[in-house]
């Protein structure tokens, strides 16, 4: 990983991308939590 000097527009675009990725990952995590709870309940 190399640091580079970027303009504020690039930083804002990266921030938007990371926020969207974060939102997506949280949604996937919540789905997996629900699925885990469902299957744990089913196996008993």
From TrEMBL:
Residues 8-35 form a coiled coil. It comes from the Bacteria. Keywords: Coiled coil. This is Transposase.
